[in-house]
Amino acid sequence: MLNVTLLGSGGGMPIPNRHLSTMVLNYKGRQILIDCGEGSQVAIRKNHSGFKSIDIICITHFHGDHIFGLPGLLSTMGNSGREKSITIIGPTGLKKIMKGLLSLVSYLPYDIKLVEISRSKLSLKIKSGILQVERNNNSRQADIILSTLELDHSSICLGYSFNISRNPKFHPEKAMALNIPKEYWSRLQSGKEVLYKDKIYKPNMVLGKERKGIKLSYITDTRPIKEIIDFIQESNLFICEGTYGDNEDIEKAEKNKHMTFKEAAELANNGNIKELLLTHFSTAMNNPELYKENASNIFKNTIIGCDGYNKVLTYE
Amino acid sequence: MLNVTLLGSGGGMPIPNRHLSTMVLNYKGRQILIDCGEGSQVAIRKNHSGFKSIDIICITHFHGDHIFGLPGLLSTMGNSGREKSITIIGPTGLKKIMKGLLSLVSYLPYDIKLVEISRSKLSLKIKSGILQVERNNNSRQADIILSTLELDHSSICLGYSFNISRNPKFHPEKAMALNIPKEYWSRLQSGKEVLYKDKIYKPNMVLGKERKGIKLSYITDTRPIKEIIDFIQESNLFICEGTYGDNEDIEKAEKNKHMTFKEAAELANNGNIKELLLTHFSTAMNNPELYKENASNIFKNTIIGCDGYNKVLTYE
User: Fold this and answer.
1) A269 — phi, psi (to 5°)?
2) Interval B153-210: pLDDT, tens
3) Same domain, yes or no, for A124 and A273?
4) Among B60, B133, B195, B297, which residue has the least CB neighbours within 10 Å?
5) Domain co-membership, B200 together with B219
């Protein structure tokens, strides 16, 4: 189960009644934040999701509307009693940006681990009570597999996807027929072999077929490059920037390296995904709902994001 | 005339429905901002005071709730078409802090002049359409005299006062009686001597007595040191931190180097000021109005600040 909340839905600048595009994922009580524009900590307060359990912050890129909330958030997390380390993941340049940013913050009672990545996969696992990046990158035992994609924006920018795998169904009747004692069942269930009375039992002898997990993709800010289509394949939820609602704003979208609703819907349509959630709306667009048809005519299951939009993704 | 708006009234952290303590002064269409916590640019939008005419930003100290809004504000000012330079005034350390802060901002289409000060006076004057710090510090010709005071906080911190002087009344009947031609009247009015037909005419020959100007004082964050009493003398408006409303929070006030309402009112009472405006309320204080009597019992003309509180100060 993955609880997804869009804390803000705006791009460019924070405005009254619309926070900047920031998302929070809640997995087994631990939280991952994606981007942190100015005022994100206020949006977190409105959402009552709390500061203490934010373990990982993923940064898409270093434009102000995606990072200027970090000094305040990190300070507030310190004031909220955070002591365990947090991990900040972002594109190349993260360490330099964080150096400038942390020079503004007087004291933090926790460590910050910085992870610079490009196109790669990371295994996230709950260890010592917090969600961490696994060093050995053993995706088999990960709680969440995080993948990134390099996008096409006016600065280096990453798309993110989060995969929670699902174990195949365990068939106790098969285990009983093979006379495997119950104490070995959980080992087989977790995909490991068992040696019992000189005989090797393999997981596939007691497990059903592969089952689809949960996949969430987050793509902002970018032009609609074709690599996105592969990257978002089979997402339960595809969160995508739709900076411009009006199809006629295509020139602005091209110039500023953003997307129209129509372009985001075309990616969704080709990406074999279940639902499209649009966000990162231009400050000039007062009511994004007015342009919904520009997307839903192409991809029916389109949701126009709004601050506080919440969805729980479960196994099918 | 000086138009004063309290953009926010909170201290510590931004919370829903209360922006951080920030003030904006409007003098002849040009603006001075005092402090800039996270979200100040949103408060400016709510106030419809605009970004283009902010010429000077005064920083009291470098704690996050007073500066974390700067990267966003400076970026938004750039996006709003600001091209003329702006001046940022603050205590020693300003240049170092601004170096870290500006490393986060990609590009600004205007110059930033940094002025580090301690206990001093600066002359502000409208020149080339913007309010600037006068290099020669000629207070006689200044539009506004800015004074600072070193306060007693957990970090180096400055109090500010803004003085707009008022010219003495000009008496045309005296000028006529002395047969001074009209073309010289404005020169005498502005305090300069006139040489006419081998005779020197001095301003005091045609001007009335000194008249009180407008004085505004801004004191946050600090303990109530006695130097504040002299500094705020004869202020039309004394804006002062009142982090804690409850008298019983005096220990917290002492520990965190802040003030209770009562302590701020005692300063006001000794400072020969007209009105006290309290601000910088602790996030734990939901309704500061509940504690108003703790101040107004000591100093009657006490106003409990709120986001958007506006007052126009005029000559008496």
Assistant:
1) -65, -35
2) 999 999 999 999 888 888 999 999 999 999 999 888 888 899 998 899 999 899 998 8
3) yes
4) B195
5) no
pLDDT tens readout for residues A35-56: 999 999 999 999 999 999 999 9
Query: Rounded to 5 degrees, what are φ and ψ at B66?
Result: -115, -10
- What is the radius of gyration, based on Cα positions, of chain B? 21
B144 and B184 within one domain: no
Contact A67, A101 (CB under 8 A): yes
Q: What is the pTM of this model?
A: 0.92
Answer yes or no: do A13 and B46 touch at CB < 8 A: no
**How many whole angstroms separate alpha carbon B222 and alpha carbon B233?**
18
Measure the CA–CA gap between B305 and B20, rounded to whole angstroms.
12
CATH number at residue A121: 3.60.15.10
> Whole-angstrom Cα distance, residue B316 to residue B314?
6
pLDDT per position as a tens digit, B149-169 = 999 999 999 999 999 988 888
User: Contact, A302 vs A274, CB < 8 A?
Assistant: no
**Shortest Cα–Cα distance, B242 to chain A (Å):** 20
Active site residue A307: no
Catalytic residue among A35, A55, A65, A221: A65
Q: Do B72 and A100 touch (CB under 8 A)?
A: no
Interchain pair A63, B103: CB under 8 A = no
Selecting from B45, B64, B69 the residue whose C-beta is nearest the C-beta of A16 gives: B45
Check whether residue B70 and residue B110 sit in a common domain.
yes
Note whether A161 and A185 are same-domain residues.
no
Please give the Cα distance from A9 to A289 (Å, whole number). 12
Please report the pLDDT score of residue B120 as a whole number.
83
Same domain, B120 and B192: no
Q: B180 and B291: one domain?
A: no
Domain count, chain A: 2
- Show the tokens assigned to B156: 């180096």
Residues of chain B contacting residue A157, judged by C-beta atoms under 8 Å apart? none
Interface residues on B facing A, Cβ-Cβ cutoff 8 A: 12-16, 38-39, 41-42, 45-46, 62-64, 67-69, 71-72, 75-76, 79, 96-97, 99-101, 103-106, 155
Gap from B108 CA to chain A (nearest CA, Å)? 12
> Is A16 close to B42, i.e. CB distance below 8 A?
yes
Percent of chain B with pLDDT over 90: 86
Tally the residues of chain A: 316
Q: Which is nearest to B20 in space by CA: B217, B275, B216, B243? A: B243
Answer with the one of A204, A225, A251 that is the final residue of a domain: A204
Shared domain check, B65 and B200: no
For chain B, how far is it from start to end, CA to CA, in angstroms? Answer: 10
Structural domain harbouring A224: 2-168+210-313
